[in-house]
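[step 3/7] inverse_fold.run input=structure_tokens len=472
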């Protein structure tokens, strides 16, 4: 496709430089497959359709901003991870995005489910998920959370502190049950990722340190407790991980702990959970490895380390979140303002303001996450222009897509789609600036299903006794 030159101030000046990893596309209309859900394409008239639904038709019915999840894409990823890890257990990490429909899909595809709060556990139970397939996380679980976990019969509580072991023992005695637990350990491994989302180094809030000996002490305490059934050990080393190196070190240190436990007690530790964090492509430069490659790498690591410590291989589980729901989700926004901003050195940056922002996707503002974007409501013959997609909030850091080439003729009213938006965006949404949270729509075979409806001003104002029920 040829590009016509777009006249105007943007092109009169020098455009702001693109980051080194971002190359100008030959055709700004092409959708890079690894970024988009499997059933996303551009129709012959240029409109993007997802799972048989044109985004223009969708927003006519539900408005913008809106998050969509390509259900078949999600299910296919769930099946693929389950098949690749055959014989291991795959827990979907619900924190990435959870609602009753997604919990149901997870169960129907034969996966287990991780939750980490009273709210997430309640969603899972209301969805009818078998409690035995649920794992309960949290570094500061309340008595209410632990009580619901124990009375509903969740399959495992992943224990994070000595205080928690005490609380579980008290509650289990009161309820006359035995609590099935795993001990969360920190292996000292920091995954190759942004520091703020790496969770396995020792100086952080999660887990018991292996290095300090706290992990073995916690395991021994659970092992000797009448009220606790110690199932195994859990390690999670970070997020957006693209190779197996970090898992190898974490598995070695954890399995050494298994060997120490076995030596101390004469008993084997039955289960090992290697956590989640498997990376996805948010931009063209991201090159995640696929489920099969990750599975064969992790299997070999566990086999090799078990042989090294002369251990019976434990039953292993993993907890992917974003790898399942991230690529299945797309955010759709409407462009409101297009503003060339003079950078003072003769260069100009084009700011595209859309009708969402950091309240529906905090990741770029929180830890500099990068995303991609495309014009969704039409194709364009215009030249690509380096652009920054920003939101409606009163923060200069309210950036959704820091750098992307978008058509030079982008204008108010256009729709923009942000792929790979299914994980940790709507699930981390806030009401900053009293902006209601967008809906989540499931799409399949051209049909839509409301997974979460749009929040209304009345929903929010109902919390404010001075505003509830009054007219503006
Ligand atoms: C304990 C645990 N397991 C699994 C995950 C899922 O990570 P991801 O969505 O990157 O796979 C997280 C994410 O923070 C986590 O903390």
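[step 3/7] decode complete -> sequence:
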């Amino acid at each position: 496709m040829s590009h016509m030159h777009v006249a105007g101030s943007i092109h009169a000046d020098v455009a702001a430089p693109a980051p080194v990893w971002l190359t100008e596309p030959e055709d700004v209309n092409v959708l890079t497959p690894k970024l988009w859900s499997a059933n996303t394409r551009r129709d012959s008239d240029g409109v993007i359709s997802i799972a048989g639904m044109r985004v223009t038709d969708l927003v006519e019915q539900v408005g913008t901003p809106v998050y969509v999840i390509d259900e078949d894409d999600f299910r296919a990823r769930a099946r693929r991870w389950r098949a690749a890890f055959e014989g291991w257990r795959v827990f979907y990490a619900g924190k990435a995005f959870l609602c009753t429909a997604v919990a149901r899909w997870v169960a129907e595809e034969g996966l287990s489910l991780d939750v980490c709060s009273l709210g997430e556990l309640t969603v899972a139970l209301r969805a009818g998920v078998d409690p035995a397939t649920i794992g309960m996380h949290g570094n500061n679980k309340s008595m209410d959370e632990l009580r619901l976990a124990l009375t509903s019969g969740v399959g495992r509580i992943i224990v994070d502190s000595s205080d928690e072991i005490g609380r579980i023992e008290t509650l289990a005695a009161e309820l006359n049950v035995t609590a099935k637990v795993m001990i969360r350990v920190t292996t000292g491994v920091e995954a190759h990722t942004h520091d703020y989302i790496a969770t396995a180094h020792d100086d952080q809030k999660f887990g018991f340190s292996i290095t300090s000996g706290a992990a073995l002490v916690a395991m021994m305490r659970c092992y000797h407790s009448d009220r606790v059934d110690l199932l195994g050990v859990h390690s999670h080393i970070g997020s957006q991980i693209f190779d197996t190196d970090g898992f190898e070190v974490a598995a070695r240190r954890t399995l050494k702990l298994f060997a120490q436990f076995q030596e101390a007690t004469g008993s084997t530790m039955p289960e090992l959970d290697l956590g989640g964090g498997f990376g996805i492509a948010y931009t063209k430069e991201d090159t995640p490895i696929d489920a099969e490659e990750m599975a064969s790498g992790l299997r070999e690591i566990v086999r090799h380390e078990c042989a090294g410590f002369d251990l019976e291989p434990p039953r292993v589980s993993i907890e992917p979140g974003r790898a399942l729901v991230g690529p299945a989700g797309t955010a759709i926004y409407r462009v409101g303002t297009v503003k060339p901003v003079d950078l003072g050195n003769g260069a100009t940056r084009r700011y595209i303001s859309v009708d969402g922002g950091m309240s529906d996707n905090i990741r770029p503002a929180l830890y500099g996450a990068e995303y991609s974007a495309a014009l969704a409501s039409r194709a364009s013959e215009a030249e690509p222009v380096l652009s920054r997609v920003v939101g409606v909030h009163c923060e200069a850091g309210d950036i959704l897509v820091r750098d992307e080439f978008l058509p030079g003729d982008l204008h108010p009213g256009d729709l923009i789609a942000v792929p790979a938006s299914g994980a940790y965006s709507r699930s981390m949404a806030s009401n900053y600036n009293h902006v209601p949270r967008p809906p989540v729509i499931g799409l399949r075979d051209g049909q839509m299903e409301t997974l979460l409806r749009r929040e209304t001003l009345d929903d929010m104002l109902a919390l404010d006794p001075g505003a509830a029920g009054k007219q503006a």
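[step 4/7] annotate
The pocket of pyridoxal-5'-phosphate is lined by residues 93, 95-96, 137, 199, 236, 239, 275-278, 319-323, 423 (CB under 6 Å).
The CA atoms of residues 125 and 166 lie 25 Å apart.
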